[in-house]
Amino acid sequence: MTVFDLLIEYIRSGRIRIDRSRFPQLVTYHDPCNYGRKARMRFGHGYFEEPRWILDRCVERWVDLYPNRMHQTCCGGGGGTLTSGYNPERIHYGRRKIEQIRAVGAEMVAVPCHSCHAQLESIKETHGMEGLEVKYLWELVADALLPG
Amino acid sequence: MTQNTTAASAGAPAWECDQDLCMTCGICASACPVAGIDAYDPRRLVRMAALGRTRELVEARWPWICTMCGKCEQLCPMGVRIADMVRGIRSLRERDRVPGILHKGLAAALETGNNLRLPKEDYLFILEDVAGEIREEPGFEGFQVQIDRKGARILTTIHNKLVNTHTEDLKHWWKIFHAAGESWTVASENWEGTSWGYFTGDDAAMKVMAGRILEQMEALGIETLLWPE
Fold this sequence. Notes:
The complex is a heterodimer. Chain A has helices at about 5-15, 35-45, 50-60, 85-95, 95-105, 115-125, 135-145, and strands at about 25-30, 60-65, 110, 135. In chain A, helix 1 (about 5-15) crosses helix 3 (about 50-60). Chain A is about 40% helix and about 10% strand. Chain A is of the alpha/beta class. By secondary structure, chain B is mostly helical. Chain B has 2 domains: about 5-95, Alpha-helical ferredoxin (Fumarate Reductase Iron-sulfur Protein, Chain B, domain 2); about 115-225, no CATH class. Chain B is elongated and about 65 Å long. Chain B starts with 13 loop residues before the first helix and ends with a strand. Classes of the chains: A alpha/beta, B mainly alpha.
């Protein structure tokens, strides 16, 4: 079961309740290659709409990056590049993603992928967005949980 | 976007034959975020494969700088599985010359059950320590970390960085499970969620890692896996 299916199950059934006012800042979402484009090409379904459904329920203001979904740009942290040692190349690779985030004016980016999360944290300062908050999608949910 | 359904989607590994489908149009190179680094791009890589310049490809850095993001093959009119070809080229690199810590981490996982060689005792200490921190938060006083719990609904794996440098990030899913009243568990051994054979082109290692998770599920009588890695 994917992280998206489980979060949607919890939210739909009312097993968890979320405070949408917890994050007032403008949020954006990055489509990881493996959950999106590659899942679509290899397995016939890309997880594009599920994370956006979850975001709708967690934050009041969020915008898509451009380009997105099948045309999204890789953050540069995929394919094991975080641990292959070619760090200047990896950081250079990520400049486009930070430019896209800056272009929509987001203060926070949500991702459902450990590699994308680590990459965005690692490159944001070099490319001039040290104040950018990088959050796991499920971290947004956990931080906005309402009691009982 | 349509899925490419040319001959390339048949059974043979991308590495063996896909390069022969290439019409040299170069759309892949136009789409590639790292075209030009070391004078490489996907088109050149596919052409070199077609011309039998395998050793040069295996020795090149470029297949390890490419993230296998798939933009090239999304646009390829012939359905060449370029990302899989890159992975196939990676698989031919001698294992002790795989860049960075990729193979070292994988070798550690195959030997010890996790990329860090983290002993079980230390691992369990970290889990309980983080569980104690969660209990200090309002609303989570009754939180318990569930280890090797038989018959739980969900087994979840752990990314090694969450029991290394990022223990705070263990808390998110655990808090959600608690709030949802979920019946969940993590394994005391072979808990590693990453599978670096995906990156190094090592299918045999991936089978071992996935097989261990399946064994855990069978031993604990669990039908659902949450694999956030």
